[in-house]
Design brief:
The complex is a heterodimer of chains A (about 450) and B (about 280).
Chain A: H1 11-17, H2 22-31, E1 34-36, H3 44-64, H4 74-83, H5 88-116, H6 124-146, H7 151-164, H8 171-179, H9 186-218, E2 242-244, H10 245-270, H11 303-311, H12 316-333, H13 341-358, H14 361-374, H15 379-382, H16 395-416, H17 421-439, H18 441-444
Chain B: H1 2-21, H2 37-51, E1 57-61, H3 72-79, E2 89-90, H4 96-103, H5 113-116, H6 125-134, E3 136-138, E4 146-148, H7 161-164, E5 168-178, E6 184-193, E7 199-206, E8 214-220, H8 228-245, H9 249-278
Antiparallel strand pairs in B: 1-2, 3-4, 5-6, 5-8, 6-7
The chains are: A mainly alpha (about 450), B alpha+beta (about 280).
Chain lengths: ~450, ~280
């Protein structure tokens, strides 16, 4: 027929395919997307993150139908959902548990990337989109946490928005601009609601699409860090070490989904508060702007970063000064920066070292906390190891990773606790470990005896 | 003058609240009667009779009590006194403004108090309520004439005193204060409160004390009556508050068993399906 494309499919599907590349897209992203055969359980967490995203969006839609973004009504409307809306309690617990589980799977997903070097060339953009997703997720969780309008919602938001007032010159006005008021109030609740249900989810979904398109463009990494595209090909030109995502990994991921749902359901039905970590008990007290709780702690997934914020005291900035000066000298003498950068970067570091002692430590706490996330963007260029996967790195690299993970967990624990001198010292040490893991990575990642990387992936038939 | 006084009371309540939140008095473990309908019904009766005068439960409807086995008729006859309808929420007539004037702080809404008073990885809010309601003692130095071990200087009087009967308190605390020279100055405070609330307080400085802080309180009846009947009643009330904080918790747990069984089955199917697909992959 004139003007119509010729396609392989017939019937209704053919009619569609002549107008929309449905079959082509399905092939490209599912049935003819070749993924390495040797994925292990770490590779469940990507699809699980997608699952949780869908759970959050769907349950979120139903919550919005009954929630009232109004400082006078918000707290009671949540209890209304819990008691009067049919199945409201289940929807609400799915959403509150989903928020925490989102961070669980995303942290594990990121750790997988760290282990197997999934951020290395040519997957830099996959990683960068991923870190952007993580940032969005943090914003989404932060905005959403204000909505139940309990004491922790209120004072948590108060503390975090106040951080912006630490920025020199524009800080105080900026904080008022964000809140829309001099304190967190109804105006703040309404705008946070708008961000939580429209703005951030929109960006989040866009970034997830970009993350997957970028991934499918370059192909998945695998536990060996070997490129299957460089290995042998079959007569259709598909990599022998790869396997079509659908049906092989779709059925595989369903096993992960089943396992995940069991954990998810166990929490929802038997311990939705998770001992006070997923739903903080203080948040069952309605927000009271006149009553500051004695101990304000963010939800667990923010606490490692919160620890770094609290660790940055005036004394601690001396440690950061020392770090900046050492880095400046090392870069000038040994760094392989080109041209003007050879001078510029050390000079900038020295200026930072001076500013560290001039500007209030609170500001540097904010910088440390933000920097701890932003540094992840640069990971592809910080890692100079000749191999991608942890499997072929020197054994002591594995210990470094172990220290990094334990340190992150300890920082997380410390962030939930009321400050005391011992804990403050521990979080300062923890902050130094976290930051130096990344900042010294260009040096340590190339040291040691690396193991021989195989030409092909190691795969044992099931 | 009155404003100042009220301000002081409010402030001391605040400080006390923060003290209570910071650990303070060790809570007793309440008996678990969450599945005992008779106990929950008794708790509901106590709640409506003794608490609902001053505290609201704005998220709670009277006819929600049908879920613990009461009928609409029983609710109407036994629990509604001032013309409420059985489908009404448990509001109170007292405004927060008046409450603040009269008590120094508005009595909190009790809908979710048992959840609010739980401690992260610690005692539950039911334990808190159970201990709090059993540790009132007379104290003439307080405006209400009452004081409390869990919530010192609380604005609430002991509304259950007729059920409890008179109590005398023997309270021994040993606490240390950090000194400028780095040492610690330990003090033992022995307080006796009689049934009328008159106190005898002795403070002594302990030299070379090496133990840890002590907070030991014994509430006893001057006429030797046992506390067990009263404890039993308070346990019912505390369990009711625990139930009211999340009325769907019983069905949630029952349902959870079935959901997990289904998911376990689903897991087996998914696992075998996956194995069937991957069997021939070399």
């Amino acid at each position: 027929m004139a003007g119509e494309k010729t396609v392989e499919t017939t019937g209704f599907l053919g009619w569609i395919d002549r107008r929309f590349p449905l079959t082509t897209m399905f092939k490209e992203h599912m049935s003819e997307y070749y993924a390495p055969k040797n994925f292990n359980f770490w590779y469940f967490f990507g699809s699980l993150a997608m699952l949780v995203l869908v759970i959050q969006i769907v349950t979120g839609i139903f919550l919005v139908m009954n929630y009232k973004p109004d400082a006078k009504l918000a707290f009671e409307s949540v209890e209304y959902i819990m008691r009067e809306v049919p199945w409201g309690w289940l929807i609400r617990y799915m959403h509150s548990t989903g928020a925490s589980m989102f961070f669980v799977v995303v942290y594990l997903h990121m750790l997988r990337g760290l282990f197997y070097g999934s951020y290395r060339k040519p997957r830099e953009l996959v990683w960068i989109f991923g870190v952007a997703i993580f940032l969005c997720l943090m914003a989404e969780a932060f905005f959403g946490y204000l909505l139940p309008w309990g004491q922790m919602s209120y004072w948590g938001a108060q503390v975090i928005v106040n951080l912006f007032s630490a920025i020199p010159f524009i800080g105080p006005e900026l904080a008022i601009w964000i809140r829309g008021d001099y304190v967190v109030s109804d105006a703040t609740l309404n705008r946070f609601f708008a961000f939580h249900v429209i703005a951030i989810p929109l960006v989040l979904i866009g970034l997830v699409v970009a993350h997957i398109i970028a991934l499918h463009e370059v192909g998945s990494n695998n536990p060996d860090g070997v490129e299957i595209k460089q290995g042998p090909k079959d007569r259709n030109g598909h990599p022998v070490d790869g396997i079509p995502f659908h049906p092989y990994y779709s059925v595989h991921d369903i096993v992960g989904v089943a396992g995940f749902l069991m954990v998810f359901a166990a929490i929802i039905f038997f311990g939705p508060e998770m001992g006070g970590y997923f739903l903080e008990y203080n948040n069952f007290i309605p927000a009271d702007p006149l009553k500051t709780p004695p101990h304000i702690a963010p939800v667990w997934y923010f606490t490692p970063f919160y620890s770094m914020l609290r660790a940055t005291t005036a004394d601690f900035t001396w440690v950061l000064v020392a770090g900046a000066v050492v880095a400046a000298i090392a870069l000038f003498l040994k760094g392989n920066l080109k041209g003007i950068w050879r001078i510029a970067v050390p000079v900038i570091l020295l200026i930072v070292a001076v500013l560290l002692r001039i500007i209030d430590a609170k500001f540097w706490g904010v910088v440390a906390m933000g920097g701890a996330v932003v540094i992840l963007f640069f990971l592809p260029w910080l890692d100079h190891s000749p191999v991608k996967s942890i499997r072929y790195r020197p054994t002591w690299h594995k210990y470094l990773y172990a220290i990094f993970i334990i340190n992150f967990l300890v920082l997380g624990y410390l962030g939930t606790q009321a400050p005391n001198p011992t804990f403050n010292l521990m979080s300062q040490i923890g902050t130094v470990i976290y930051l130096s893991f990344f900042f010294v990575m260009p040096v340590w990642s190339r040291l040691g005896t690396f193991k021989q990387v195989p030409d092909r992936i190691t795969f044992h038939a099931h | 003058m009155i404003k100042k006084l009220l301000g002081t009371i409010a402030l001391s309540v605040l400080c006390a609240a923060s003290y209570a939140a910071g650990g303070g008095y060790k809570l007793d473990q309440a008996p678990d009667r969450m599945n005992d309908m008779a106990a929950l019904q008794n708790g509901a009766k106590l709640f409506v009779n003794y608490c609902l005068g001053c505290h609201s439960a704005n998220a709670m409807r009277y006819n929600k009590l049908t879920e613990i086995g009461l009928t609409d008729e029983q609710i109407k006859k036994n629990l509604l006194f001032t013309g409420e309808k059985v489908g009404d929420l448990m509001h109170i007539a007292m405004t927060p403004e008046d409450a603040k004037k009269w008590f120094g702080a508005a009595p909190p809404d009790l809908s979710v108090i048992a959840r609010a008073k739980s401690t992260t990885m610690g005692p539950s809010g039911v334990d808190y309520v159970y201990t709090f309601l059993r540790t009132f003692y007379r104290d003439t130095s307080k405006a209400t004439g009452w004081n409390n071990l869990v919530f010192p200087s609380v604005g609430m009087p002991n509304v259950l005193w007729q059920l409890q009967g008179p109590r005398i308190l023997d309270h021994v605390t040993i606490h240390g204060e950090a000194q400028a020279d780095g040492g610690t100055k330990w003090q033992r405070v022995t307080a006796k409160y009689d049934a009328q609330g008159y106190s005898e307080i002795k403070t002594e400085v302990l030299q070379n004390y090496t133990g840890s802080p002590v907070d030991k309180a014994i509430l006893s009846s001057p006429d030797g009556n046992s506390a067990s009947v009263f404890d039993h009643q308070v346990a019912d009330l505390a369990n009711f508050l625990g139930w009211m904080a999340e009325p769907m918790q019983l069905q949630r747990k029952t349902m959870g068993v079935w959901v997990l069984l289904f998911l376990a089955l689903f897991f087996v199917v998914a696992w075998r399906l996956n194995a069937a697909y991957w069997k021939h992959v070399k």
